[in-house]
Specification:
By secondary structure, the chain is an alpha/beta fold. The protein folds into 2 domains: 1-45, no CATH class; 48-245, no CATH class. It has helices at 4-19, 41-45, 74-78, 96-106, 112-122, 141-147, 151-159, 186-193, 221-232, and strands at residues 85-91, 133-136, 172-174, 197-199, 209-217, 237-245. A 4-stranded parallel β-sheet has the order 1-6-5-2. A two-stranded antiparallel ribbon has the order 3-4. The longest helix has 16 residues, at 4-19. It starts with a helix and ends with a strand.
């Protein structure tokens, strides 16, 4: 039986639910007829998780026309990237695009609850692997001050909430204020990043297993440049985890 105090608490909770209903983080509509306190059924149905068949190296989703088994994509067969494995949780499109833009450009951390719930629903986007270091992709200091946060660091803390002591946002340094990658093609993205990312002087990376975290995997230029620098400094393994895959 529910005691008198418990009944009062229950009534308060129901009253608050009526007066201040939760809103969908995707469309902003009140959440009714759903047990999810972050997503409405309509927005949740538009979230597409990246699952097999996919490229076991870069993590790109593949057509099932040639079977349901994972296989290397043409790009990785032609030019193997410097990272060991890349995985993304969901495909990049609305409502994910909207949430990541709010986080990235408006420093709106209210979206983190919705992002965190998707990680739980999807079971993560990689095997439960132990890393020595978890490294967010860096921002140039002036851009970091302008934005107010590094979205890659926020996502690293969501993905690795139980390994927060391994997250180090100081290992990689963005040494050049390069133009934004958005709007650039693959070759231009790679050229844009050359020489712009450095490892903090004195950092010991020999034989370290590293997970690099970013928000979106587009052409892989950023992931490749960071992975190359980390391996040049002795890292034994570099996996890449991003929230979304373009």
């Amino acid at each position: 039986m529910v005691g008198k105090v418990g009944m009062v608490d229950l009534l308060k909770a129901n009253l608050l639910q009526i007066l201040f209903p939760p809103y969908c983080c995707g469309c902003g509509q009140p959440l009714v007829d759903t047990d999810d306190r972050n997503w409405c059924c309509s927005c949740l149905a538009r979230v597409v998780y990246v699952t097999s068949p996919l490229c076991p190296l870069c993590g790109m989703g593949l057509s099932s026309d040639a079977g349901d088994h994972d296989r290397w994509c043409f790009s990785c067969l032609k030019h193997q990237p410097p990272f060991d494995k890349a995985r993304s949780l969901v495909q990049y499109g609305d409502p994910i695009r909207t949430l990541l833009h709010r986080l990235k450009f408006n420093a709106d951390t209210r979206v983190t609850a919705g992002l965190r719930s998707l990680v739980k629903k999807g079971g993560g986007c990689f095997e439960n692997k132990e890393y020595d270091l978890i490294v967010p992709v860096p921002l140039f200091p002036a851009r970091l001050r302008k934005r107010g946060l590094n979205q890659a660091l926020v996502l690293a803390r969501i993905f690795f909430a139980d390994q927060s002591e391994k997250i180090d946002p100081t290992i990689l340094i963005k040494a050049k204020n390069t133009p934004a990658q958005s709007g650039l093609g693959g070759p231009a993205r790679r050229k844009n990043l050359v020489g712009s990312i450095l490892v903090k002087p004195g950092t010991k990376l020999e034989k370290k297993r590293i997970c690099l975290v970013d928000d979106i995997f587009t052409t892989g230029a950023t992931a490749s440049e960071c992975s190359l620098i980390l391996k040049e400094k002795g890292a034994a393994n570099v996996d890449v985890v991003t929230f979304a895959r373009a």
